[in-house]
Amino acid sequence: MRNITLSVIVALSSVSALPVLGQSNASLTQVSASTQQYSNAELDSVLAPIALYPDTLLTHILIAATYPLDVISADRWRQSNKHLTPEQVENVLANVSWDPSVKALASFSDLLNTMANDLEWLQQLGDNVLIDQSRVLDRVQVLRQHALNTGNLVTNDYIEVERERETTREIIYIEPRQREVVYVPYYDPHIVYGHWWHTTSPVRWRHHVSYHHHSNVYWSPSIHLSTFFFFSSVHWHNRHVVIHREPVRRYYHGSPRKRVISRDYRRWEHNSVHRRARYSTRVIHSAPSRYEHADVLRTKHLSNKQIRLVNTQTHHNEKRTARPISRSENTKSIKRTVTSQQITPLRESRFQIKQDSVNRKQSIERALKRNQAMTRSEKPTRNQTLDQLKRDKAARISTSSESKRYANRENALQRQGKQRLNRERLERTSPQNKQVVRESSEPRRTERMSTPSVRRAQVKVPEASRNRVIKRDRSEKVKRQVSRVERHISKGNSYRP
Fold it and tell me: Model's pTM, two decimal places?
């Protein structure tokens, strides 16, 4: 009887505890559901510092946030190689295994450093992009609309703003004013977006003193980029990021709304194998089939990739065929054995080329480190700089004195040459040397003799001196005629002119 009563009491207590357990389970499911999605306040706070960036730069940030390890490694490398220009950065990172978006952001050293230092912000942005990409782009348009309403988002010398009206919403495009030059904006969200409408405060990034202030926004110095930077954009109608299928060869100068309509762009997909980092619980809850077993997928991908390099046989006009593979059932990892005869020379050459590229990359990194060390060691001291300035000053003083002396000598030679030319010109034009009249031994007979200066017919005589010569010749002619008449009359002859 006692056992029966005890069992009845235990049963009643268990039945009374069932609602409490049900309530606790319901609360746990609500908490787990709340952790799967970020609220609009949290998402707007994360997107506040980058929502007004140009579309191309915004897509690179969204894609790079899903690969945090690449962002951190790129920032460390960029901080140790600040002396490289964007063109040099592009050439050095050509064979590095980072994501293309991270390589594109390597030229923006300040922006990359800000992203790498704020790891919590980087993780939240990457989680939102992986969970729901369209929702992220919707909130970007909401923030841009607030900035447009306050008058802080307009076309200026740095960006070009274009608007397009749909049936239920408005799309705002932002592009660089000059396609080959990009400026990064820094601003205060409380000022640019107006009165902040969430209880969660927005994220604000600091800017350097050298940035230029214009219309409540601080703009970074210009960064000149080649066409490799413009390989991604946003398909705002469908709310997803697109990337170009092939390397971009020329700048696009048309309307941004027509850029992504061409078939050269395809939708961007996250590569879970390249992430090389764990996903957060929110990302796993949003898509467990895709992100929960990412580590297993990465190991299988790497093993298949290694076997594919050795196992497959290629021909010019035939499809690739795989060799039979032997699998072991005892271990979880997939094992494949290949005989040495199945390795083709083409595969060996490709493997050798890949090994050479890795060695080339290592040699480039060593050369960069060596050059950096040499520049540090060869940095001149204060005393050496002062001595060099003294030597340069003495050389400048000596060269200036010599140049003045040579200049005075040249001026003297030019003056002498001008004086000689003027003297010769005067001698040529003087009327005394034109004609010399000499009386002969015969009576009343004159003989005219011209000097060598008169024989020169090409000498140009001034008009005044020529008139004087003509008058003198006329007077002499009259005198000769008078003397001739007197001579005829003295002889008793009649004169006939």
Answer: 0.56
